[in-house]
Design goal:
Blueprint: H1 2-17, E1 22-30, E2 36-39, E3 44-48, E4 69-73, E5 76-90, E6 93-105, H2 107-111
Antiparallel strand pairs: 1-2, 1-5, 2-3, 4-5, 5-6
Length: 119
């Protein structure tokens, strides 16, 4: 019975420690290699910092639609996107810790959103 009880307790407690998934939509900025940020209605979120933090699932980011991508520095630039993510907030740092899904949106959607800052 004891061998069975520990796994059962662990499985029942696991959801208590799982981070909630949030949908975050806004300006997705990739100004330079390995630097990624999302600016939404709440904050500017770190996704990746060159030489340091990189969110799990960052490889899901795929800004393929060239019409809805603005190049500002060679291949680097910004677009509009929605992502299902987990986050953490510590001090003044707001961080996306993992990306579960990614969807590029038309630039028009962010441009017309009154709650997003203008770039």
């Amino acid at each position: 019975m004891k061998k069975f009880l520990f796994p059962l307790v662990f499985l029942l407690a696991a959801p208590l420690y799982a981070q909630p998934i949030e949908r975050r939509c806004g300006w997705l900025n990739n100004p330079t290699p390995a630097n990624w940020f999302l600016v939404d209605r709440a904050a500017a979120w770190d996704i990746g910092i060159q030489g340091g933090f990189q969110a799990r699932g960052i490889e899901k980011i795929n800004l393929q639609n060239e019409r809805d991508y603005v190049r500002t520095n060679g291949n680097y630039g910004y677009g509009c996107a929605c992502m299902d993510v987990t986050t953490t907030r510590s001090g003044g740092t707001w961080r996306i810790t993992s990306i579960r899904s990614f969807r590029q949106l038309p630039l028009k959607q962010c441009l017309e959103d009154p709650d997003l800052p203008k770039l």
